[in-house]
């Protein structure tokens, strides 16, 4: 059973069923009835890297302005990939959290 699940996941990854708008106009047309905008990634790791990158960019922008950056952290297992990527960005790329509260 577990083998079948893994095979199914691999087939989904290969099928490229994930939403990828070609430009901002395409995104607007396809999402005009959505209540909340969402981006869909092929893996949790890709999503975590993207979210961590967005957080890192916000931190850096606030640093340039000399402002504090308020970050709300969620609990549970879901955000662990994001936190791991933020740690990696700190250790390997020097992302500073001095202005983060």
Automatic annotation (TrEMBL):
Superkingdom per UniProt: Bacteria
**InterPro entries assigned:** GlcN6P_deaminase-like, NagB/RpiA_transferase-like
Q: Which SUPFAM superfamilies does the UniProt record give?
A: NagB/RpiA/CoA transferase-like
Residues in a coiled coil are: none
Cite the PANTHER family for this sequence: GLUCOSAMINE-6-PHOSPHATE DEAMINASE-LIKE PROTEIN BT_0258-RELATED, GLUCOSAMINE-6-PHOSPHATE ISOMERASE
This protein's name: Glucosamine-6-phosphate deaminase
What organism does the record attribute this protein to?
Rhizobium meliloti (Ensifer meliloti)
